[in-house]
């Protein structure tokens, strides 16, 4: 890893000289997990380390290193370490240098293309730093990079490639935090990410980190945890407070040694997440209507760009993902605050959002991110010009056929083939996620028996009882209630359907059975 040894040696020197260190972290799951990884490792190396953390406020400061915060931290600390941010922070880095402070940047986001545009930092720990030998695996998330730094700190402090048993146990423990960053940041689950996720998931429910245990308890996860549990239960709770308030409590949860405090924070994160879900639903519904009314969902308008003063800036990124799922085109949502618009964007496979923003950068105050997700800021009086430039860029690079979501099917199957043992073997392909998707199997001409029914606290999920070639099978359609309501006549008793889904094992109350998680469906005779 470029500059990894240099960064680790400087940190160990700071510990030896009892210098004050501050970790500057992003406010999402990846950033909070990254900060917690280094916090635990540094305290293990020196229990009385002079260590502070700084997480910017999403709404007041925005993403990444900012000059004012760096100036203040440089006056108070000897060494600044960024995690999950900083690779484009040229101005804040100059501020640290001007104040005579060493800045170590650890990040994974898209770096500047030119060496001259890199921040002037003591060390740049990044898999793809321009002008330096690339790391063999370029897809690490911020927590993955932080974990590599923690690993190198452990080996250097131990005087060789092997670490002492307490540090070895801690590194294994910290895989739980690294796995949460890998999965929540939706990086490709290949290579090293797959190794981190595979073994980190195993570590989560047996973690000795009090906050991780409290988070699992609050999320009602008592046994095995899979990638979906992190993506839909643990991750959203850790993210919610950073979206609506300040992420410091999420970080405190992952570092506290007080069990009662951990339980208190975990419960509060659930409340924050419930609030986030309500706000998100309102914004998504509003944005969906605006996109349709303004003609942004047609074949000749291959991107969505919307702004509203009333939208909550901390939630619009998730709402972008909702609109991408509905309309399958790059989407940018912005919250207008006086003369400035702060926004988030999400993309579709095959369209590099970061490159698109770079091409339209003359209209922007700032931007950053990667191919699939990004943040941006622009003046309100440049919004129309940016909209025109961004839509022109997408229209040139996307065809109408690209705006149709595609369901990729691995193979066809029958209900008879989906035995418990067969599905258990399929599960060994986990963890599933980006670039290692769940197996998607086609069952043709399945027959609905009885009336589809909704379930869940909000009644937003659907259960179907089907037979396929005379074999019964239960089918779960997560968030399928709107489709059921719209097509109730077609999804009735004795309807014949083609189903695409992933078989899952259900062991509720000690009973073993195979169920199908539905991804897509169509009438068999359509």
CATH topology name of the largest domain, in short, is: inorganic pyrophosphatase (n-terminal core)
Number of helices: 16
**How large is the share of residues in beta strands?**
15-25%
The main sheet comes to: 5 strands, parallel
Uncertain parts: none
What class, by secondary structure content?
alpha/beta
Q: How does CATH name the architecture of the largest domain?
A: Alpha-Beta Complex
Oligomer: single chain
Helical residue percent band: 40-55%
N- to C-terminal separation? 54 Å
Q: Report the CATH C-level class of the largest domain.
A: Alpha Beta
Q: Mean pLDDT, nearest integer?
A: 95
Count of individual domains = 3
Strand order of the largest sheet: 2-1-3-4-5
What would your notes on this structure say?
The chain has 526 residues and is of the alpha/beta class. The chain has helices at residues 4-16, 29-45, 67-76, 90-98, 142-158, 165-184, 191-204, 210-218, 227-244, 248-253, 259-293, 316-327, 353-359, 383-397, 420-427, 481-486; strands at 21-25, 51-54, 79-83, 102-106, 123-125, 304-308, 331-337, 340-346, 366-369, 373-379, 411-412, 441-448, 453-455, 461-468, 471-477, 496-506, 513-523. The strands form 3 sheets. It has a 5-stranded parallel β-sheet, with helices on both faces. A 5-stranded mixed β-sheet has the order 6-7-8-10-9, with helices on both faces. Helix 2 (29-45) links the parallel strand 1 (21-25) and strand 2 (51-54). Helix 3 (67-76) runs parallel beside helix 4 (90-98), helix 9 packs across helix 11 (259-293) and helix 11 packs across helix 12 (316-327).
